[in-house]
Structures are given as C-alpha cells and as structure tokens.
Amino acid sequence: MNYIPVGLTHFLVLSAVLLVLGIFTMLTRRNAIAVLMGIELILNAANINFVAFTRYGAINLGGQAIALFVIVMAACEAAVALAIVLNLFKRQGSINVRQADQLRD
Amino acid sequence: MPSPVHSLSEIARAAQGYAAFSVNGFIPELVLVAGFLLAVLLDAVTRRTSRKTFCVFFGIAVLALAGIFSWTEWRPFTPDWQGGYFIFPYSQTLFAPIAHNRVLDRGYAMAVVDNFSVFFKLLASLAGIFVLLMSLVSKELRERSWRLGEYTSLVLGMTVGLYLMPASLDLVTIYLSIELVSIAGYILAGFSRETDYGAEASLKYILFGALASGLMLYGFSLFYGLTGTTNLIAIRQILALNPATHTGMNMYLLWTATILALVGMAYKISAVPFHFWTPDVYHGAPLPVTAFLSVASKAAGFGVLIRFLLFAFPTSREGAPLLDWQTALAVLAVLTMTFGNLAALLQSNVRRMLAYSTIAHAGYMLAALAAGPVAFSRSSNFGGVVAILIYLVTYLFTQLGAFYAVMLIENKIGSEEIDDYRGLAGRSPLAASALVLFLISLTGIPLTAGFIGKFYVLTAVLTPDAITHTYPWMWLGVAVILNSVLSLYYYLRVAAAMFLKRPLREMALAADAGSGIPETFLREEGGRTRIRYSIPAIVLLFGLAVPTVALGVYFKPLVDFASGVIRFFNF
To answer: What is the pLDDT at residue B318?
Structure first.
C-alpha cells in the first residue's frame, strides 16, 4: 500500500489554505458570527504554522508554547467580540455587519 | 550543547553591568496591574453613583505612581553603559533560542527596560492621566457615571499593554501586548454602548483589529519558521549569519513575513491601507477614549514598529543585504499623509476631520522613520527615531488639547458639525481660541509645539547622505511640506467658521423645534449666549495649552531628553 509521508510542506499548505479561507470568510460573510469564525481560522492557521515548525524544524518547544498563548488570546478576543455582537443585536435587531453603517463620511 | 541550567553565580556574573534584572524592571507594570485589580474592587465597593468619580481619581494616582516608578529606571547616557537591563531572561522561560551560550546576553529576553521603553511608559502615563481628567469633564461619560469605575479599570488595563508594547523584545510579547491594548480598546470604543454609534464603533474596531492582529501573528509564525526563534535580536543575528534565511525563495518568504507583521503595527498607528477603522471608531467612541486611542495607542504602536524594524533586521554594516524596508515605508508614509489630508478636507464633522488628520500625522512620523531612523555619525541631527519621539510629545499635548476643546464645545452645543461652530468665538472665546491654538500647532506653525515636531521630522528626512552628499529623500521631504500646506486649509476652515462667520439662522430656529440641542445652548438670544465652563475644565484646558506653547518656544529639554533615548540603541 502506498502512502504519502506527511511532512512540513503539508502542514504549511494546510495553514496557508486556512489563512486564505479565514480572510475570505471575514471579507465576504455578513453574519457577525461567521466573521468571527473567520478570525478563528486565521489565528489557527498561524497556530498550525507554529506547531509544525516546532515539530519538523526540531528547534525547541517554543512554537508549541506560543500556540497555547494564542489559544488563550483567541478565547479572550472571542469573548469580547461576542459581547460586542450581542450589543449590536440589541441595538439593531440583527447581527448583519453590513447593516452597521451609520458611521460614514 | 550548552546546559540550559545556570548557577546563580553565573547569572550574577553575567548580570554585572546591568543595574538590576528580572522582576525589578517590572515594577511599573506590577503597580498598574495591582491598580487595575484594586480599581475593579473599588468599583464593586462604591455603590453610590456620585462616589464613582473617586475611582477615576484612584486611576490617576495609579498612573502617576507607575510613571514615577518608570522614571526611576531612566538611565542617563554614559559612554561605558552597555544599555538597558532585561527582564525574563531566556534561561528561565520556555523560549530558549537555539544553541545560545550567552544566556544573559542582552539580546535574549522577552522584554527590555531601557530608556526607549521608559520614554514610552512616561508618555503612556501622561496621556492616561490627561485622558482620565478629561473623562471627568466629558458629558458622554458623566451621563454614564455609574460605570466610571469600570471605565477606569479598563484604562489601567490598557496602559499595562501600552507599557509592554515598546518594551517587547520578542514576537510573542509584541503580539500579547498589542492584543492587551486592543481588547481593552474594543470595550472602551463601545463604552457608550446604548447608542448606535458606540455599538457600531466597537464592532468595526474589533473586526479590523482581529484581522490585522491575526495577519500579524501569521507573519510572526513565518519568522519563527525562517529563523527558529521569536526573539528580535536572535532573529537579527540569524538573518545576518545564515544567508539561507534570506536567499532564493526564502527572500520572498521573508518579505511576506515582514509585510504581514507590519500589518498589525500599521493598523495600530492607522497607516494607510489599514486605516479604515480610524474615522468610524474615533467618531463613535466617547471623546476621551478617542483621544487616548489617537495619542497613547498610536505612540505605543510607533514604539513597537521602531523596535521591530531596528532590532530584527540586520543593517548593511553587519554584512547582510539590507531588507529594503525603508523605501517601502517611505511610499507608505506618502500614501498615508496624502490620503489623511485629502480625506480630512472633505469632512464636515470636526471629530472626523481630526480623525483623518491623525492619519496624516502618522504619515509624517513614518516619513521620519523611513528616511533615516538612526544617525550613524554625530551630525547635526539625531535621526528619525529621535524626531519621532519629539513629534510624539508635541503631538500628545496638541492632539489631546484639540480633542479636549472639541469635547468642551460639544458638551455645550451638542454638535460637532463645522457649520454649528459658526460664530462660536463670540460666545465662547476661551474654548474657541484654545481650539485654534491646537489646530495651528497641528499644522506646524512656528511658536507652537507642532512646529518643533515637524521641524525635527523634516531635518531627519532632509539629511544629506554621509558619503555621497546628496539628498536621497528629497521627494519625501517635499511630500511632507506639501501635505503640511494642504492641512493648513482644513484646520483653518474650523478657525474661520468660529471667528469669521455668523451663526446659521437655522440654529436659532432649532432651539424651539426640540432638535436635541440643549436649551441652555440657545437661550433667548438665539445662540448668542455666553457659554460658561467650570473652573476645573478651564484649568485642564490651560494644562494642555500651556505646554503646547511652551514646547514651541523652549524645546531644548525635550530634544535633550529624546536624544538621550536613541543613544541606547548602540548601533
């Protein structure tokens, strides 16, 4: 049976794809929750990079530790973001980010 | 392979020449964190709304104390002094760089206490104190005075991040401190959450901010992959010593990583492709918060940017090809200042106009950083970094003053439209004159602080090359000058409205139409009544106006102070 050994490149491609998907999600989705999911994709793309570089670069455990920090930071950011979205829902009755356009030139 | 464990005597030996190390350098931040926790407690204990202002005074005291502790870490320059001292040496953390055998080498630390970071800490404290004082006067916040304790604790929490940002010497600390500032900022921006504007401002801030910091983190991960470390000095050494990290395909990767990393910092200083949030957030947030974001957050952003660009990239003197970030930054600077000024021209709202003008000011400072960050010889000027530091101090008083004057006027007339400012000089000569003073200082007209800042920026940009005696950044200097002329138009438009134009007739009619303009504003005489301010409000106005004039006349201490910072880079 043939199988492809998984190497650093696979992880880097995966993280690059995740990054692009995250940016795409953030820019195109209207639902605030979906936009927040895009943020998570971007952060986790970076996390995969950190962990993969640590694993295959055989450098030290630095990348793994950074990933832990980032996970905590992402949770904090998500908590604040959800509170802000909730507040937006109270104000305008929907969480469509396109509707929040009163501040403009 | 060196052992990661080091005896105490070894550490003590390595620490010789450093004033102290580890947690000693962390005292200002600890004071702030303790103050933050106590402010939360104090907020819970005080029940009466009328007592909540006490929390604000407590916050001012904490900021002052932290500032004093930072000040004790200032070290005057002596030739044999090797630089600042470092907290959190790598040997005690998980983040050990590869094959380091000089454990307490001044490079391998998470954060650094040097004059550069002390300068920014003092700046953050000063801005924080002024902003908390402004908050006591702000009508927007006084209407929510039962939440002032919460507000104070958020400002203190944000200041912790502001303290750490310019002190960071590691990509991880840079990311964490930027996030610390941002998350507090997201909440503060939406502090008037019951209003549509507040809700929208915080939403826009967090969406742009999260995208920018996420991209920055991805850039950091690429740096980590390229060099195997997250420490700025270690990155510099590896880039200089190992050509494989920046040749062939890796050069593209290095550029990608750099650009992505700069996204997060450009967002913090609101440089042009990442400025979209600025006018909306500055418009929707309460004015003291706007002032804090535009001064302190921007200053710390520049601190991080300078630290990152000057520490992580080897210069050509170190034998490695220079990553030409200077030209890229110069283009960005011209785009930023031109866009900021052009957009400000079109605004009818004073607050939005000031928001766009802060973008333009970021452009001027970027120009100084791009042209000649460090003067390598003892020539007539000190280089771009010192120019930025001088600019930031003058900008602090001027920009805070402008926002404060706008706030005072808005408290009374309930509007920020330039049309509503017509004839204001007759009713409120003090606030109108002060606003004009701040606006001409923002333009950079002599005898005001803004002129000194702009003068040093231009000196840094228009410095002849030491070898060829040509002016490599002439076009950048021309762009700065043209933009300053452009900015004069929209700043003086406000002054002209206040001093030269009569109030619109519609304003008088609006008084009885119940259009939301307070009755006190237009009583009987149709907008001709004198506007009166409380004594503390006037004292604070003078507290900002006097330095704006004083620094424009007597600026030698400021220049000496700022140039004492740059010598610590030891390039």
So the answer is: 60
Which pLDDT band, with edges at 50, 70 and 90, does B406 fall under?
A: very high
Query: Is B132 in contact with B56 (CB distance < 8 Å)?
Result: yes
Taking the CA atoms of residue B249, residue B213, residue A8 and residue A3 in that order, the dihedral angle to the nearest 10 degrees is: -120
Q: How many CB pairs under 8 A join A and B?
A: 132
Q: Is residue B75 part of a domain?
A: no
Among the listed residues B456, B433, B443, the one whose alpha carbon sits nearest the alpha carbon of residue B545: B433
Within 8 A of A7 by CB-CB distance, chain B residues are: none
Do A81 and B187 lie within an 8 Å CB cutoff? no
CB A68 within 8 A of CB B176: no
Cβ–Cβ below 8 Å for B187 and A80: yes
CATH architecture for the domain at A8-95 = Orthogonal Bundle (1.10)
Based on the number of CB atoms within 10 Å of its own CB, is B246 exposed (0-12), middle (13-18) or buried (19 or more)? buried
Residues whose CB is less than 8 angstroms from the CB of residue B9 and which lie 6 or more positions away in sequence, other chains included = none
* Residues making up chain A, counted from first to last: 105
d(CA B435, CA B452): 19
Check CB contact under 8 Å for B190 and A84: yes
Residue with tokens 């520049």: B302
Q: What residues of chain B lie within 8 A of the CB of A69, using their CB?
A: 172, 175-176
Show me where the domains of chain A are located: 8-95
Instruction: Compute the distance between CA of residue B300 and CA of residue B120 in angstroms, rounded to an integer.
Output: 7
The pLDDT score that the predictor gives to residue B205 is: 95
- Is residue B206 a contact partner of residue B229, using CB atoms and an 8 Å limit? no
Q: Tell whether B83 is covered by a domain.
A: no
Residue position matching structure tokens 């958020």: B154
How far apart are the C-alpha atoms of B141 and B333, rounded to whole Å?
Answer: 35
Phi, psi of A25 (to 5 degrees): -60, -45
The tokens describing B392, both together, are: 């930031």
- Which ipTM value was assigned to this complex? 0.96
Tens-place pLDDT, residues B230-279: 888 788 878 877 777 777 788 889 999 999 999 999 999 999 889 999 99
Q: How far is A73 from chain B (nearest CA, A)?
A: 8
Q: Give CA separation, B34 vs B47, B58, B70, B87, B135, in Å.
A: 21, 12, 15, 19, 22
Q: What is the pLDDT of residues B80-126, one digit of tens each?
A: 444 444 443 332 232 333 323 333 344 467 787 778 888 999 999 99
Residue of A nearest to B182 (CA): A77
Q: What DSSP string runs through A1-46?
A: ---PPP-HHHHHHHHHHHHHHHHHHHHH--BHHHHHHHHHHHHHHH
Chain B hits for A63, CB-CB cut-off 8 Å, are 221, 224
Cβ atoms B449, B397 nearer than 8 A:
yes
Residue contact B218–A45, C-beta within 8 A:
yes
Cβ of residue A58 closer than 8 Å to a chain B Cβ: no
Q: How far apart are the C-alpha atoms of B413 and B516, rounded to whole Å?
A: 10
Nearest residue to B30 via CA among B183, B163, B146, B141: B163
CB contact under 8 A, A73 and B284: no
Whether chain B has a CB inside 8 Å of the CB on A23: the answer is: yes
What range does the domain containing B367 cover? 326-571
Residue matched to tokens 């704006």: B548
Number of domains in chain B: 1
Model confidence over B516-534: pLDDT tens digits?
Answer: 555 555 444 445 678 889 9
Which member of A19, A57, A90 has the closest CB to residue B228?
A: A57
Q: Do B172 and A66 touch (CB under 8 A)?
A: yes
- Is the separation of the CB atoms in B290 and B134 below 8 Å? no
From the list B96, B201, B217, which residue is nearest A43 (CB)?
B217
